[in-house]
Design brief:
This protein is α/β, with parallel strands linked by helices. It has helices at 3-11, 32-45, 60-72, 131-143, 161-167, and strands at 13-15, 19-21, 53-57, 76-79, 91-97, 104-110, 119-127, 146-156, 172-181, 188-190. The relative contact order is 0.18. Bound molecules: guanosine-5'-monophosphate.
Length: 193
């Protein structure tokens, strides 16, 4: 097991409905040393890529992206779920269905912060069905930016997102891929890398 898998096995809580709770180190209380190690690992895996910006989505991706970016030394932009700055023509928008909240959000990124000159690394905490990532990809496409790669902390390999995104041809680097989990015993099984 790698460092993230070990931490999930130790502190992750398996909930009913295929939800993995990691709020003691990733989603609520945040272990920034762990995030730092994640950034280092992504830096290695995306070696040689010319990355000019990191794009994530609020809220849980922001902390991870901000720490990870210290290894890349590029700005972090996050797609905003608030509608308050949705000024027609000045923002890129995408609709994202939330796996955890089961609702749809319009996410927006200002045109000021993403353009055709950008080479983007997408970062997020979880990959489940891939809706959040597809929204971010859609925003990059609208901006004419190049998606250089995708860094995910925890991919739930038994949901369709990973296959969909890899089939689209993106370099997707998930640091832990959960193959299955059991809400009764609390066990988490990982895919061999
Ligand atoms: P997707 O859009 O790929 O279906 O889901 C990804 C988003 O849903 C992530 O941004 C993450 O916030 C949330 N998510 C999906 N599955 C889980 C899970 O098992 N646990 C937690 N904590 N968040 C999840």
């Amino acid at each position: 097991m790698n460092f993230l898998e070990e931490r999930i096995a130790k502190d992750g809580i398996v909930k009913e409905g295929n939800v993995l709770k990691v709020d003691s180190f990733l989603n609520h209380q945040m272990d920034t040393e762990l995030f730092n190690a994640m950034g280092e690992e992504w830096k290695k895996r995306f070696e040689g890529k010319n990355i000019t910006k990191i794009l994530t989505i609020e809220a849980s991706g922001i902390g991870i992206a901000c720490v990870a970016t210290q290894k890349f030394q590029v700005p972090v932009v996050f797609a905003n779920k608030s509608k308050s700055i949705n000024i027609e023509g000045e923002v890129y928008t995408a609709e994202v269905e939330s796996f955890t909240h089961k609702n749809k959000n319009q996410v927006i990124v200002s045109k000021k912060f993403l353009g055709e000159e950008d080479h983007v690394l997408l970062i997020d905490d979880f990959l489940a069905n891939g809706c959040a990532l597809q929204g971010l990809i859609q925003i990059c496409n609208a901006a004419g930016a190049t998606v250089e790669g995708i860094g995910i902390a925890i991919e739930k390999g038994f949901q369709k997102g990973g296959t969909t995104i890899r089939n689209l041809g993106y370099q997707l680097e998930s640091l832990a891929i959960v193959e299955s989990m059991n809400a009764e015993t609390g066990e988490v099984f990982f895919r061999e890398n």
